Amino acid sequence: MASGLDLEKVTTGAGAEEVDEIAAQEVVEDERKQAEQQQAGGTLERYINFVSAINFSFILQCSWEAAAVTFQFSLLNGGPASIAYGSIFAGIGTTLVATSLAEMSSMDPTVGAQYRWSATFAPKWNRFFGLMQGWITVFAWICSCTSNPAIASNVIVGLVIFNYPDYELKRWHATLIMWAIIVLPFLANFWFRKVLKVVEAVGAICHVVFFLVSIITLAALAEKSTVHYVFHTLTHDLSGWSNPTVAWGMGLLTVTYPLTGFDGVLHMSDEVKKARIRVPRSMITSVVLNAVMQFLYMITVLFCIGNVDQVSADYLPIIQVYYQATGSKHATNLFVVMLAIIIFVSFFNVFASVSRLLWAFSRDNGLPFSKFFSRVNARFKLPINALVLICCCLAILALINIGSSVAFNAFISLPALALYISYFFPIFFLFIRRFSHTAPIPYGPFRLGAWGPFINLGAMCYLVFVIIWMPFPTILPVDNLNFNYSGPIVGTVILLALGDWVISGRKRFQVPVARHRPDFG
C-alpha cells in the first residue's frame, strides 16, 4: 500500500521537490510561530496527515445524512423539484465557493481563514473588515456546531415518537438531549490527537457504507414514484407561499445547508502537515464527493418516498420513508440510527474546528478577554479555554428549543446564513484585488489562473442568491412562533461587532499578516 506521501503526490500532482520545499518552509514557519505566539498563550503542533485531512472534511459535512433528516422543509416549499434541481444547483455553486477559498488557503493556510483573508485583501479599512469578518465567522461556526446536536436530538425524538406513539413531546426534552450530546465530544477533544485517525477512518467507512446500504435498500424494496413527480412537481400551496419561485428558492435550504462547513479543515490548518497542498485538496474533494452523494441519495428518496401525505405528516419524515419501504420497525430504527451515528461523529470535527477558530481570533485580539481564550494548554496542546467557551455557548443556544416551536429551523438556517456571509467577503475582496493591480497576489501552489475571476464571480452570484432566501419565514401567516429569526440574529451580531469596534476593537485588534512563504507563483 502506498504511503501517505506517495498517495499525495499521485492525487495532487505535486512533485517531490515542491512537497519537500513546502515541508521545509513549514518547519521555518513553525519555529517563527512558536517564538511569536508564546506570548499569546502558545501554539499548536502539526500532526494531521494527508488521509486524515481528506477524511476530516469528508465526515464533517456528512451532507446526505443532514439532507435526509431536514428535507421536511422542502416538502412544504418547493417539493421534489426544489430538492432534485436544487441539489445540482447547490453542488455546482458550493464547488465554486470551495474552489475560490481553496486558492486563498494555498496562499495563506491559517486557522483564522476568512477574517485573515478579508483583512489581507480588503482595498482599505483592513482592520475594520478583519474584525467584522472575524465576529461573523466565529458566530457562524458556533451556530454550525449547535446544529449537530440539534439534528441528532431531532432524530432521537423522532424515533421515540415512532416507537412509542403515546409519548408526549415537551420541548425541554430536546434541550436535555442536546446537552447530553454535547458532553462526549467536548471531553473527547482533550484526546483528539490520539483518536483522530480512528474516528476519521471509522466515520469515512460508515459514511460510504451506510450510503450504499440505504440507497440499495430503498431502491429494491420501496414503491416507486413517477419521473413526473420527482422532476416536475413544484410544491407552492402548502406553506402559505403561493409564488412558485419563492417556494423553490426557500426549498433550497434542505440541499444548501448540508454542503456548508467545508471550511472546517481550514480552521485546523496549523495542525495539518503540508497545509498549502493538503487543505485546498481536502476542501474541494469533500465538497464534490458529498455533493454527488447527496444528489444520488435525495433522488433515491424522492423515487422511493411512498405515501407523500403520510411522510409529510411525520415528525421526522425520513422515518416513514424507510418504514414504508421495509415494513419493519426494527429495520427502520437501524437505518435512522445510522444517520444519527454519522452526524454525531461529524460533531467531533465541528467541535475541534470551531475551538481552533475561536482560539485564533483571540490570538489576534479579536475578542474581549482575548488573552484568556488564546491560551494553549501545555499538557494537551489544545486551546482548552476556547473549548470551554464553545461548550457553554452551545448549552445556552440549546435553550432556544424551550422558547420556540420552530427552533429546529433556526438551528439550520442560522449557521447556513452566517457561513454564506462569511464566505462572500474574502472572495469579493480577492475578486477586486485581481483587477486593482495595487499589489501582486501572493499565489500558492494551488492557483486558478485565468479561470480565477470567473470562478470567483460564479461563487459570489451563488452566495448572494442563496442568502436572499434564508431569512424568509417557512410558513405564512407569520407570528412570533414561526418567524424566522436568523436574519435579525445575524444582524444583531453585526451590530455587536460594530459596537466592539467603536468601544475597543479598533485599538485591540491586530491586523493578521500572512506568514512568509516561498513564491510558488
Task: Explain how this protein is built.
The chain is an all-alpha fold. It has one domain: Amino acid/polyamine transporter I. The protein contains 23 helices and no strands. The longest helix is centred in the N-terminal third of the chain and has 38 residues. It starts with a helix and ends in a 13-residue tail after the last helix.
Topology of this protein?
Elements (H helix, E strand, L loop, with lengths): L3 H9 L3 H22 L12 H12 L1 H6 L3 H5 L2 H29 L6 H8 L4 H38 L7 H18 L3 H30 L5 H6 L11 H7 L2 H4 L18 H29 L4 H6 L3 H10 L2 H35 L6 H4 L10 H14 L2 H4 L3 H30 L15 H18 L16 H23 L13
Question: What is the end-to-end distance?
Answer: 33 Å
Q: Per DSSP, what share of the residues sits in E-state strands of 2 or more residues? A: under 5%
Query: What is the 3D form?
Result: globular
Count the domains. Answer: 1
The assigned CATH architecture is Up-down Bundle
Let me know the CATH homologous superfamily: Amino acid/polyamine transporter I
Query: If you average the pLDDT, what whole number results?
Result: 84
Assign the CATH class.
Mainly Alpha
Number of strands: 0
CATH T-level fold name:
Amino acid/polyamine transporter I
Could you say which structural class the secondary elements and strand pairing correspond to? mainly alpha
Distinct helical segment count? 23
Which bin fits the share of residues in helices? over 70%
- Compressed to H and E, one letter per element, the order equals HHHHHHHHHHHHHHHHHHHHHHH
Biggest sheet features = none
State the low-pLDDT regions, or none: 1-14, 35-40, 515-521
Rg, nearest Å: 22 Å
Organism: Lophiotrema nucula
Keywords: Membrane, Transmembrane, Transmembrane helix, Transport
Pfam family, one: AA_permease_2
Subcellular location: Membrane
